Amino acid sequence: MHLGKEHSHIENDPNYKGLIVNKGVEQPPSVNPDAARRFLQKRPQELTLAQYVDGILAGDITILSRAVTLIESSLPKHQELAQQIILKCLPHSGSSVRLGITGVPGAGKSTFIEALGLHLIEKGAKLAVLAIDPSSERSKGSILGDKTRMESLSSTPNAYIRPSPSAGSLGGVARKTRETIILCEAAGYNTIFIETVGVGQSETAVHSMVDFFLLILIAGAGDELQGIKRGIMEMADGIAVNKADGQNIQKAQLAKTQYSNALHLFPPTRSGWIPRVETCSSILSEGISNIWDMVEEYMHKTKSNDFFNQNRREQAQYWMYESINEKLKNNFYHNALIKNKIAEIEPLVNSGQISSFEAARELLELYNKQV
Amino acid sequence: MHLGKEHSHIENDPNYKGLIVNKGVEQPPSVNPDAARRFLQKRPQELTLAQYVDGILAGDITILSRAVTLIESSLPKHQELAQQIILKCLPHSGSSVRLGITGVPGAGKSTFIEALGLHLIEKGAKLAVLAIDPSSERSKGSILGDKTRMESLSSTPNAYIRPSPSAGSLGGVARKTRETIILCEAAGYNTIFIETVGVGQSETAVHSMVDFFLLILIAGAGDELQGIKRGIMEMADGIAVNKADGQNIQKAQLAKTQYSNALHLFPPTRSGWIPRVETCSSILSEGISNIWDMVEEYMHKTKSNDFFNQNRREQAQYWMYESINEKLKNNFYHNALIKNKIAEIEPLVNSGQISSFEAARELLELYNKQV
Fold first, then answer.
1. Which chain B residue has its CA at the smallest distance from A204's CA?
2. Are A150 and A110 in contact (CB under 8 A)?
3. Among A273, B123, B216, B285, which one is least packed by beta carbons within 10 Å?
4. Is A72 an interface residue toward B (CB < 8 Å)?
């Protein structure tokens, strides 16, 4: 759009009546050339395997984060490098306490993690907080997506917070998180929290990679439980009844008694540990140390009866098999011909026109012809 | 061996001093020729597909049993015929009540099944009792292996009792049982019990093929629960506290209250149904009708909110996918090279020398090179 004659032209034209645009002052460059140079220098360079491993073992958070990004990447080149890093880190991993934390949204999980995390860091711990939330792609990261949820913790040097890997299936997300545990442990984090939302399948995955599984509930056994998936309560090694503060204290105590009685009816755990219920207030940081005492007692008990090591070995095997099974299924279900055939055959199964097993047989026959 | 001269020779020889064998009376044939002829006539002839289907639809127990034997056979020829029979029976199946029954040995499962079964048959039901017990090959059929466990029921014309298929993996056993359900329904059985022992993985399989899942417990929440697998209680749509008789009545009532309170703490089921606890005495046949009332109430509720149909559709899909996944895994893990490699790599995973995921990758690479 032409708003007026250029100043230089009209400067010497006394008859000009139009809009006069004054010559402006030269604008400073929008980018500080010094800063740009520094930024370019700081830009991630390709690191060698040795640089990654040394950096992680030295506890360098930036390098740790970049290695985790490799784990999360789907590029084959990145995956290969990630596997080599993990292999080198494995001998330096394994000596942490791995704590799974679940609870429905609204139970105060992040406040709890912040309170417990700060308590442990005060006692000298190095804490990594990871998450498994396969829905995070859809929900744009419902948990740990926003570090500001744990403001104090995320500004503490001895805490490393990493949101859930967002891509893909539960199996994929779980694999990435489990590999990240190894790197975090090699980087010196002696306490690992794995957060998850107690509404999906992900609890089983988390349960299979932690030593202790903690369920966060709130007082009033009614509507608050609506979102918790059936079966999760039986997985718990401990329950924390959160928000036991102010007018809630009595209700929380009552809930504690009720849950204790319920847990008492469950068959004993394989660990020989009897799950316990404690109340706490994350906001007031009250009762938080009791909950950690429970975890430590559990660790002591399972390390002396050797369940701890046995469980870790079984978990390692579990993940090997899980990982194979996941891949076998992916290959099958991502096959284009199979996809089409499933779309065609599923309605017939639903309406009882062919049996589930005959449908499976036809699909497998089609698949075997191809590979 | 020659014991003496033949009678005919020595008859006319007065000087003979040796052993004389008297001519014997001709023995009657050890096989009654009439019976043998009848037996040969009755001996299973190869039936045609149409004969199988017509027989099943006419409620012929002998033909039904032979068809189930085809389902259980591992011969490809039998499998193919079985699938054709199932296909023809499918349109005539689906209209029964499918009840899963679990409980540890000692809870009185078979007495309970007998009591409930006779109660239903008296009311006009046709009952098929099936079982899933993948351990039965090893334990020589710990459940339903011996029909004499349910004497009165097994001598009732309207009851069909079939022990657990004994061969192979849980997936295989479960498939066979699920296919047997179809044939039983087509044969006019309007009530199907699937029995399982509450100690293994099989409950999930049973839970995925029944409408209502009943857990049998006994009074005294202590040692009796030792054997029940964690997680099973949360699957139950109802609990029967059995052996509520004699001096046990009060204990059973107390147990009922405790379990009710515990169930109340669980999150609601997807069906919208609130699981209930009832006491009963199978030996005295007391309280048995209450338990069936509970099942009928459940059926009414889930049929009116459409959970019933939705659940059945989901179950059909579940079995299609389960069946595929099972087969994919079988192909992999039964591969000879893979077996050797697993034996080699598992100790490395256990001792943390290589990561679970790297081990999985190597195994898959080896497998893909072959197929």
1. B231
2. yes
3. B123
4. no
- Three-class SS string for chain B? CCCCECHHHHCCCCCCCCCECCCCCCCCCCCCHHHHHHHHHHCCCCCCHHHHHHHHHCCCHHHHHHHHHHHHCCCHHHHHHHHHHHHHHHHHCCCCEEEEEEECCCCCHHHHHHHHHHHHHHCCCCEEEEEECCCHHHHCCCCCCCHHHHHHHHCCCCEEECCCCCCCCHHHHHHHHHHHHHHHHHCCCCEEEEEEECCCCHHHHHHCCCCEEEEEEECCCCHHHHHCCCCHHHHCCEEEEECCCHHHHHHHHHHHHHHHHHHHHCCCCCCCCCCEEEECECCCCECHHHHHHHHHHHHHHHHHCCHHHHHHHHHHHHHHHHHHHHHHHHHHHCCHHHHHHHHHHHHHHHCCCCCHHHHHHHHHHHHHHHC
ipTM for the complex shown: 0.72
Lowest-confidence pick of A219-228, A308-317, B163-172: A219-228
Amino acid at A73: S
Residue A89 C-alpha, separation from nearest chain B C-alpha, in angstroms: 10
Q: List, for residues B44-83, the tens digit of each pLDDT value.
A: 678 999 999 999 999 999 999 999 999 998 888 999 999 9
**Could you tell me the domains of chain A?**
44-92 (1.20.5.170), 93-305 (3.40.50.300), 320-370 (no CATH)
List pLDDT tens digits, range B173-184.
888 999 999 999
